[in-house]
Write a structure and sequence with these properties.
- By secondary structure, the chain is of the alpha+beta class.
- The chain has three domains: 157 residues, 2-Layer Sandwich (Beta-Lactamase); 88 residues, PAS domain (Beta-Lactamase), CATH 3.30.450.20; 207 residues, 2-Layer Sandwich (Heat Shock Protein 90).
- Helices cover 49% and strands 20% of the residues.
- It catalyses: ATP + protein L-histidine = ADP + protein N-phospho-L-histidine.
Amino acid sequence: MARRQWSIAGQLFALQAVVVTLLVLAGAAGAVWLARSDSQQAAKDEVLAVAQAVAGSPNVRAALTTADPPATLQPYAEATRVATGTDFVVVMATDRTRYSHPSPELIGQPFIGDIGPALSGEPFTVTNVGTLGESVRAVVPVYDDEHRIIGLVSVGITTRAINRKLLAQVPVLLGAAAPALALAATGSWLLSRRLRRQTHGLGPGEMTRMYEYYDAVLHSVREGLLVLTRDRRVALVNDEGRRLLGLADDAAVTDRPVSGIDLPPAVAELLGSGRDAHDEPVLAGDRVLVANQRTTRFEGAVLGTVLTLRDQTELRNLASELDSVRALTEALQAQTHESANRLHTVLTLVELGRTNEAVRLATRDLALAQQLTDRVVGAVTEPALAALLLGKSAQAGERGVDLVIDPDCRLDDSPLPTTDLLTVVGNLVDNALEAVAGAPAPRRVRVFVGAVDDELVVRVGDSGPGLDPDRVADAFRRGWSTKSAGRGLGLALVGQVVRRHGGAAEVARTDDGGTLFTVRLPVPGVAR
């Protein structure tokens, strides 16, 4: 099989099989070597003990002093050899002359091998090659009653006999090695099977490429990504996710519980709930994010939770400005329609000869519209804010709401970015218009924008039903709305601007029972 077709699990199993087999074979070889060494040592101990027993026998000492030692020693030595299971028992004179031997024709011939230490009175064992082949032998001196050496006894076991005994132990060794090899192979197979499931049968090259692509894609996409394990611990946060959530690049967040990470409250609430979310707007500091969250599963098992985030702060600001322009356009279209109706009425009155009534009708509406425009433009020189207020006035007129610009309103120059100013004023006015929509007449919204004691103050009051005191604390929280099923961001965006500029927001009751929102933004050197 080509190497590229081998999975990681397959390669690991093959490697483990080879290593385990070599270890078992090495262990078996070591066991054989130890057994052979033990067998040789046992043979040395055995032949030494037999030789010492024969040398100490009175019959042997007595036979060595007779005229025909072989006649007595040969039967005795052979009987001892058979009884002890050794291969030879040789009794000899100090000049090496044999008095006994398993091969009778060798009796009387010289003994082959070293006998020097025994002649010096020192029994010893040695491995030598003799007439029967290589053997382990012991040579022991024989003493007379006066402790003089009168002969020597050599007892030996051939190496072939020792090897035969060792081979008889091989089945036992194999019987011990085979289960060990089978157990190791089974363990390796189970481990490779588990690894195959975890790696989905992928090879190392495929795993490497997947990691490289995975890492490159996750850190280059312009969408924030946060992955949680099934036990709600952070498995991954990519670069964009760190930026959107305000996490430092070197902050250690991986493998930590999500509850132990400093996340924006709205994001923490969404992650803590574990619910699925689709294009849900959330606030993260001064950003408006769109969140998508879902639980991930593989083969029916829950793996964790994936949260993706997209930054829509600039898009929201542009949308807010677009809404203002759209509202102004719709108001102008409505006014055009109303102007056409009034023009037809004026023309008809002229045709009927009622000129005075026609002039009064035309000049009255024109004076009201011009008066509103002059008051707004004269009080607010910021063009975008002036356009917003004019548009909201027309929008309020369509809804039957009287939008009143406070006579004390004055702002020659905006100390704030235009988008922040429009966010505060536009969302407060929209919230007020929603509040008075279902209220009984007269429906009124009053707006003040101006500088007071080095502060930019925006006040928007309405004649609606008023805000429940228990809900004041939630007024600037994401998701709060004057509508029962709202997912409002308007007041939350206002609160976001307030926090960014270090200001304050207050909610109070108006004299007519409505709600008064006051935003104070400290801006030193504000134009008055």
